[in-house]
Design brief:
The structure is a single chain. The chain has 674 residues and is an alpha+beta fold. It folds into two domains: 227 residues, Penicillin-binding protein 2a (Domain 2); 354 residues, Beta-lactamase (3-Layer(aba) Sandwich). The chain has 21 helices and 22 strands. Strand 9 and strand 10 form a beta hairpin. Helix 4 crosses helix 5, helix 13 crosses helix 15 and helix 13 packs across helix 16. The chain is elongated and about 135 Å long. The termini are far apart.
């Protein structure tokens, strides 16, 4: 029989202290001293972890704050209204008008999108259809359904049947969620009023008025003013948050004319706001910051609206009986300052057709009519007999022409092996220089031009700035103008210069191409007796009078040249300008002018087409306004000359100018008699 187990060290269990002491001793004996090695290891690890936390909080907090900012903040930019454009008298040429829109804030529809999604999913499951759309597809359907319901509410109020574009909606949802989604952007003022009255105050539907360009005079000065187009590239200088994800409301930018040339000046300063967004990308109101857009700066042009409208109406008045529109341009310049008073080019286009965007039919019509071309600065034409003024200057300066020179005109002149006729194929007989200008005698200028020489003609033309860009503040001024000389012909045609080339050049034919603006500057320079007239489209009431290099003529030569131009308007090829029956306003106005008719190849073949010219200035004894008109003939071989077409257009412009000139005097007399 086994013996009961006896503890080798019996304890007195009745003594609690002894019992506890024994337990402690027993526990100690079970402890492994090697565990002490892990204490420092654990301590180091804890210190490293705590140090890492401290480092992240103390030294990298800015980095994490920056990451949080970039992830949860968004920037919204709003374009500024563009500045206005005025004429020299402060009349509005280009402004802004409100375009009424109804928009929908998608970030306010999160709950509706979710409920619609659940309803659609439930319906598909109840139907047991095997072709159940994916979750993402059902989300697209849900968003479309909700947005269309709101649009239907708008349709009901204003009587329309507009539909939401699913593609546009999804593109907006994925790329422009923080921006309002535009349901309709062409509300009338009546639509706007009805919606404002009937829509709930706290509806996600919002009525807004954005700024679009407005051209109160339609097509007036269309090539000068230019037009705008939509852009996402709006100026954001000084707006914080450049590194944030940015959403931009589309703005406008200049595409042509002054709108393009001074786009930065007109564009203004963008406004907007910075919002926090939730993890789904929806914005959280209120914004962290907000800035109101600042309208662009205004521009005062040198144009006189009255003269501009008169010039355009004058060109239109030359339309054929069948309504065929005539193409051409007219430019009027202040002789004293170079400020452009009028610059008309036809055909043109209605600038309001570009707001908010140009339709395909309107664009096609502009293309077919050739109306994109600003003929005042891009139309290049042989100057015809208006160039005889330059030939006279070259002959005077070469010493081959004197104020009292006479040439016998037999109606034709042999140059080399060719016969060159006078312009009307009639013999003028002995003819003086002033009368040769007035009657546009080719024989006189063949003689003087050949005597002066082609290089003198070319060099003097270049002295006036002909054949060069004028530097007018407009984009796309043509640089293809041309002044030929023997070196040019050899280089470009591989041929030697002949006296026949000089004869042609002397009367403005051959290898010469100038724009109407160039010729208006030339006329202004002749009026002042100086070489250059830099044109400008910007009005400055304090602009000093121009003083450039003198032409280099003696007073007698200058006076004889102007006298020839005065005779042109009195008894010569532009004598209609002296008809008091047509222009009673010109009773006390002395006009100096020169007509011209040039021939250009017919693009359809056959007989050549005529270009009708007039250049001149008034008053002849105190020049203030210079004019150039160039009109394109479109019927081969027709009687289409400077005296019958271009001079009357200049007359209408001068009539408008004279009326304005007389008005202040009449007002002054009225005040004096009170």
């Amino acid at each position: 029989m086994s013996q009961p187990f006896t503890h080798p060290h019996p304890r007195n269990v009745d003594n609690p202290l002894e019992a506890r002491s024994g337990k402690l001793t027993e526990t100690y004996k079970g402890y492994d001293p090697r565990i002490l090695v892990f204490y420092p290891i654990v301590t180091v690890l804890l210190l490293l972890i705590l140090g890492g936390f401290a480092y992240q909080q103390l030294f990298k907090a800015d980095i994490y704050h920056e990451r949080e900012r970039l992830q949860h903040q968004r920037r919204i930019l709003l374009p500024a209204p563009r500045g206005n454009i005025y004429d020299r008298e402060g009349r509005l040429l280009v402004g802004n008008r409100a375009r009424f829109e109804v928009t929908l804030n998608l970030d306010e529809l999160r709950r509706e999108f979710r409920l619609e999604y659940l309803r659609i999913r439930k319906n598909y499951r109840e139907l047991g259809d095997k072709d159940i759309p994916s979750s993402s597809q059902m989300a697209v359907i849900a968003r479309y359904s909700v947005v269309q319901r709101y649009l239907d509410e708008v349709n009901r109020v204003i009587g329309r049947e507009a539909q939401v574009s699913s593609r546009d909606l999804e593109r907006h949802f994925r790329q422009q969620l923080l921006l309002p989604y535009t349901l309709l952007d062409d509300l009338t003022s009546g639509d706007y009023a009805r919606l404002a009255e009937q829509l709930p105050v706290r509806s996600p539907l919002q009525l807004t008025a954005s700024s679009v360009r407005d051209y109160p005079h339609g097509s007036a000065a269309s090539h000068i003013l230019g037009y705008t187009g939509a852009t996402d590239d709006i100026p954001v200088e000084g707006f914080p948050g450049e590194d944030l994800a940015t959403f931009k409301m589309r703005g406008t930018t200049g595409r042509a004319g002054i709108e393009l040339q001074f786009n930065d000046h007109l564009q203004g300063k963008a406004g907007g706001a910075i919002y926090r967004v939730d993890p789904a990308g929806y914005r959280i109101d209120p914004p962290l910051m907000r800035r109101t857009p600042v309208q662009g700066r205004n521009i005062a042009l040198s144009l006189d609206l009255d003269l501009q409208l008169a010039a355009e109406a004058a060109i239109e008045s030359m339309a054929d009986e069948d309504g065929t529109r005539i193409a051409g341009a007219a430019v009027a310049i202040d002789v004293r300052t170079g400020e452009v008073l009028a610059m008309a080019s036809k055909p043109d286009y209605n600038l309001n057709d570009f707001t908010p965007r140009l339709g395909s039919d309107a664009a096609k019509k502009i293309e077919e009519e050739g109306a994109w071309l600003n003929r005042a600065i891009q139309g290049l034409y042989p100057p015809g007999s208006t160039f005889k003024l330059l030939t006279a200057v070259a002959a005077f300066r070469s010493g081959v022409l004197e104020p009292d020179t006479e040439v016998v005109c037999h109606g034709v002149m042999r140059v080399g092996s060719r016969l060159f006729p006078c312009h009307d194929r009639r013999a003028h007989g002995p003819i003086s220089f002033p009368d040769a200008i007035a009657k546009s005698c080719n024989i006189f200028f063949y003689t003087e031009g050949i005597a002066a020489g082609p290089q003198s003609l070319a060099d003097n033309a270049r002295r006036f700035g002909l054949g060069q860009r004028t530097g007018i503040e407009l984009p796309y001024e043509s640089g293809r103008m041309n002044i030929a000389d023997p070196a040019w012909k050899k280089e470009n045609r591989g041929e030697s210069w002949t006296d026949g080339d000089t004869a042609n050049m002397s009367i403005g034919q051959g290898f010469l191409l100038f724009s109407p603006l160039q010729m208006a500057c030339f006329a202004a320079s002749i009026a002042r007796g100086e070489l250059r007239t830099p044109p400008t489209l910007l009005h400055d009431p304090g602009r000093p009078a121009l003083h450039t290099e003198p032409i280099g003529l003696t007073p007698a030569q200058q006076a004889t040249l102007v006298e020839g131009m005065v005779r042109t308007a009195r008894i010569g090829t532009a004598r209609s300008l002296s008809s008091l029956k047509i222009y009673p306003e010109f009773k006390n106005l002395v006009i100096a002018g020169k007509t011209g008719t040039a021939q250009v190849p017919n693009p359809k073949g056959g007989k050549q087409l005529n270009i009708a010219w007039f250049v001149g200035f008034a008053p002849a004894d105190n020049p203030q306004i210079a004019i150039a008109v160039a009109m394109e003939g479109h019927v081969p071989g027709e009687e289409y000359g400077g005296g019958t077409i271009a001079a009357p257009i200049a007359g209408i412009i001068l009539k408008a100018w004279q009326a304005k000139r007389a008005a202040p005097a009449a007002q002054a007399r009225t005040v004096a008699t009170r």
